[in-house]
Amino acid sequence: MFNMKPPFRMMIASNLTDGHPRNSLELMDELRPLYGTERQFTREVVESHLQSLKAVGIVRDDEAEVDADGRLLVRYAITDFGRDKLRSSL
């Protein structure tokens, strides 16, 4: 009937549970098969979700670099609190 996908923000956090920090572009590459056709699937939206997840302690900054266009690329890692929250929401 309906093809229900998990909430986009939840999947962004979930993709970090393997312990490998990622930036917004890397997360977009991973999530493209599931969300790539949606209007919300933009770098700005992914970065906004990451900032929201950071604000509530689910992810944290890990490291940063500057891309070829001079934009800051921050890698995010999941926190223990974030891992626990994801576990309890499943």
Automatic annotation (TrEMBL):
Keywords tagged on the record: DNA-binding
Q: Which InterPro entries match?
A: WH_DNA-bd_sf
Species of origin: Desulfobaculum xiamenense
Query: What is the protein name for this chain?
Result: DNA-binding PadR family transcriptional regulator
Q: Name the source's superkingdom.
A: Bacteria
This entry's Gene Ontology molecular function terms read:
DNA binding
